[in-house]
Amino acid sequence: MYAKVIVDINASALDRVFDYRVPDGMALSAGWRVKIPFGAKTAEGYILSIEESSSVPEEKIRDIIEPLEDYPALLPHMLELAEEICERFHCTKSVALRLMIPAQMRGSRVRVKTETTARCVLSGEALEQYSASIGKRAVRKKILLSYLSDGEEHSLKDIRGIVRDPNPLLEEMRQEGAVTVSQREVNRKPAVFPQDPKEVTLTPEQEEVMAELSDALLRCDRQPNQVLKRCFLLHGVTGSGKTEVYMRLARECLKRDKSVIVLVPEIALTAQMVDWFEGRFGSLAAILHSRLTPGERFDEWRRIRRGEARVIIGARSAVFAPVEKLGAVIVDEEHEPSFFSESFPQYDARQIALSRAGRENAILLLGSATPSIYSFAMARKGEYVLLEMPRRINGRDLPAVYIADMRKELSLGNRSIFSAVLKERLRRAVKSGQQAILFLNRRGYASSVTCRSCGATVKCPRCDVAMAYHKSDGLLHCHYCGETVPLPRKCPVCGSESIRTVGIGTQKVEEEVKRLFPDVKTLRMDFDTTRTQNAHQEIINAFRSRQAQVLIGTQMIAKGLDFPQVSLVGAVLADLSLTMPDYRAAERTFQLLVQVAGRAGRANVPGSVVIQTYQPDHYAIAASVSQDYREFFENEFSRRRKQLYPPFTIIARFLVEADDGAAAKAAADQLAEKTKAFFETEKLQKRLLFLRSDEAPISYIDNRFRAQVLMKLLNHPESEKAMARLSEWSGQTEHHISISFEINPASLA
Ligand code: ADP
Ligand code: ZN
Ligand code: ZN
To answer: How many domains does the chain have?
Structure first.
């Protein structure tokens, strides 16, 4: 027998199938990972198929050395998915296959963890006889025997708690035939805080949504080949009980002996969603996110692969979870940019989910209070089935939103970061014992340090960005590369001493709250306070148990959190996300504001929201007052049509990075020429609406200069094919210039 093997080395020259002989007695099939001889060395490889013959001359074929696991790591449908990814992204097979197993599994950098256990095999009379045979002075042996005499398996760790240095004793007892010593696998389970959500009766709206979804599952079972509409978009306002729908759908899947994958934005994973799922599904649930240790991730992955865990909750990459009978993929907060991969291949987890659903006969449920423009457009076209839950649970109202015009505040002489209204409402909330959330999408204390004489801003020595001042350590931080420098006393350009910090960050907001309300306890949740593994969870738990009255944070606090006692939400400066160099700035702003507003008034206290802004008339801000998604959608959709933005077009760019600015720019110019010529020879000019080579908005990061070739293409199958070809030009060139090709990238910085 011969195996067709993909060698796990990412090089285009090796991106083909190699034949290896399967030694007699080695039972292998497609999807196994194997150790193989490769040149003078050994390598790891994936078996794509097993064949009876090979066209390679017998003497040139070498034997597989050994399997790397005792099971096939890749399921057949995952091999097919890898094939599709290669085609779509023009990547090598090994790159696509690597997405599907935990990184550390390659090169055996993580192993199954075992522990030694001992068990007494004697009982009844035999046990008594043996016990009597132990000399009076062998006290430790007696103690150990009585500990083990329950016949259970005890770990060496526990045994050490009973007697010191038990190994020689255990060995002695083993030789005397009284105990057996063995190894057992231990499961590294990530820390969870299961919270059993109370069993509720579904609202009529939830019932209706569930009826549709159950019906779809039924159709998948009965007529697997005829299910046309597999994708559902659940548009439910904040607090409409979407999570309950997800849990019911998961339960439906389990009832049908199927598994479910729940994708959530990375940050929501540390929030209560996981706790609820853990509470309801116990050990049937598995978690996959970036904060797991390699061992934890590997063990969770194996629990899924063995079918022990059937409800998988995870970030983007969990879409590759090795489940065998997929019933549904659920994507919560589907509008979040984090479902796009930032590294090559830049897949969209929602697209992969849809592809898996089709291939594995499952359904896809996308949920959001503020669906992405793309998904909602698909639903309106009838490609996705639209499900709506327009009301909050128990008929609670959406919180009333007040817009504080900061231009007016300024003209009235208020230079504080809080408008009069926000200050007053904050005072009332804390006085009456309620909780408040203050949201500002920027960490640190001040966003930059500027010279009042010459106007210069202190920039990172390595990046083309202003450095933010962090009061906690008194240093200037670069939020792109992490560089820190001391706060200069004088302007680095003109030497003037009148330099000052401008712009606010979460640290400043916290300081201001403490100054206004000295007795009020605050918590801050941002990148800086959540570096340790369970920090998110600890902050959330502290706030939920009311150890603090005011929570200040970045967009981390905008999502998925259900704090019943929060009556006031303040968006300290809503404009920050509007000024991003990105066609989605309005969409992001609206989504963030609605999400953060949705944290208020979730239980019995009515909620209020204050949005502070310098642009109260912007349609993204105005629509967040009514929290009217459709109003926003219509505005944004027609703007995109007029300005030729996605979903009407595709935005793509080559990002060129080089050690030298001129080299980057020259390479970009060259690429632009090449691109233009390509569209001409392929006779596709009419698909190309715009092409321009330029410096990137941030012209260098981490000492690498950045230039770009930005293009807009008509949304058309021909454009997609063209882009697949263009993506082949990405890679490293000899002068340490790297080129990456991005399609609708999550950030256009
Ligand atoms: P969303 O995700 O839509 O913002 P959640 O799923 O967080 O909303 O639900 C909001 C609150 O309503 C939660 O506290 C949840 O436990 C509760 N809830 C959900 N469904 C019901 C129901 N049918 N009856 C009573 N309470 C419910
Ligand atoms: Zn100066
Ligand atoms: Zn930097």
So the answer is: 5
Pairwise CA distance, residues 284 & 291, whole Å: 20
Of 185, 217, 234, the residue at which a domain comes to its end is 185
Does residue 742's CB lie within 6 angstroms of at least one atom of ligand 1? no
d(CA 704, CA 659) in angstroms, rounded, equals 5
> Under the phi-then-psi rule, with left for phi > 0, alpha for psi from -120 to 50, and beta for the rest, what region is 406?
alpha
- DSSP lists the bridge partners of residue 657 as 706, 738
- Residue type, position 443, single letter: R
Q: What is the spatial distance between Cα 374 and Cα 339, in angstroms, rounded to a whole number? A: 14
**Do residues 83 and 131 both lie within one domain?**
no
Residue whose Cα lies nearest atom 15 of ligand 1: it is: 241
Whether 432 and 548 share a structural domain:
yes
- Is 369 found in the same domain as 262? yes
Buried b (16+ CB within 10 A) or exposed e, 731-744: eeeeeebebbbbbb
Q: Identify whether 569 is part of a domain.
A: yes
pLDDT for position 186: 83
Element (H, E) at 548: none
- Per residue in 705-716, pLDDT (tens digit) is 999 999 999 988
- Mean pLDDT across 128-155: 89
Distance separating alpha carbons of residues 683 and 445, to the nearest angstrom: 54
Q: How far apart are CA 734 and CA 181, in angstroms?
A: 58
If one compares 506 and 736, the residue with the highest pLDDT of the two is 506
Q: Which ligand is nearest to the CA of 497?
A: 2
Ligand minimally distant from the alpha carbon of residue 493: 2
Which one, of 367, 374, 378, 379, lies nearest residue 333 by Cα?
Answer: 367
The CATH number given to whatever domain includes residue 162 is 1.10.10
**Shared-domain flag, residues 613 and 659:** no
Angstrom distance (rounded) from CA 612 to CA 416: 12
Query: Does residue 461 belong to any structural domain of this protein?
Result: no
From the CB of 475, is ligand 1 less than 6 Å away?
no
Residues 733 and 654 in one domain: yes
Write out the two tokens for 523. Answer: 């918590």
In this structure, are 664 and 717 located in the same domain? Answer: yes
